[in-house]
Structures are given as structure tokens and as C-alpha cells.
Specification:
Blueprint (H helix, E strand, L loop, with lengths): L4 H7 L9 H17 L29 H5 L5 E2 L2 E2 L7
Antiparallel strand pairs: 1-2
């Protein structure tokens, strides 16, 4: 199978340098080969009877934390709120 890395990069809006095309093509070919080796899955769900799934029991945590305890690990707090870097101008 021939994989056109330049076309895939264009669709994904990625810039790939010409010297890296061969590397990405071989990696993509490896991914395609791996997927082709996956077994077909029937419509039935197959479970291993000797290794059943064990779901954890849902439990409500009894311990309540105070706001002060929750904020003590924050790098910066102002007026009881977390201060984060501005991301939008």
C-alpha cells in the first residue's frame, strides 16, 4: 500500500519537512500493518470465563475537605480562588 504522507499532512494541516517524509511514511506503514493484523471481531461479545471482570463498589467519601485544605497546594490563590495565567486577550 502506498501512503501519501504529503496529502495526509495537507488534510491535517501539518507541515512536514521533506527530509522527514520517509520516516513518517515508514511509521504510518507500520501502523497500517498492525491494524491489518488485528483479528476480526464478531457481533458477539467474547468474555474469558476464567478471568471475569470485577467492578468496584461505588462508595461515597465521608471525609469533607475545607476550602483552605484544598487551596493549600495551589501555586497562587487570591480571595479564595485559584489564580491561573491569562489565556485570552
Amino acid at each position: 500500500m502506498n501512503i501519501d504522507i504529503k496529502h495526509i499532512a495537507k488534510l491535517a494541516r501539518l507541515r512536514i519537512e521533506d527530509d522527514q517524509l520517509e520516516k513518517f511514511e515508514s511509521e504510518m506503514q507500520g501502523i497500517v500493518n498492525m491494524v491489518e493484523k488485528l483479528p476480526d471481531i464478531n457481533d458477539e461479545l467474547v468474555l474469558d470465563a476464567s478471568n471475569p471482570m470485577k467492578l468496584r463498589k461505588d462508595e461515597v467519601a465521608d471525609k469533607k475537605f475545607t476550602r483552605q485544605e484544598l487551596m493549600q497546594n495551589a501555586p497562587k490563590v487570591k480571595a479564595g480562588c485559584l489564580v491561573v495565567p491569562k489565556t485570552v486577550e
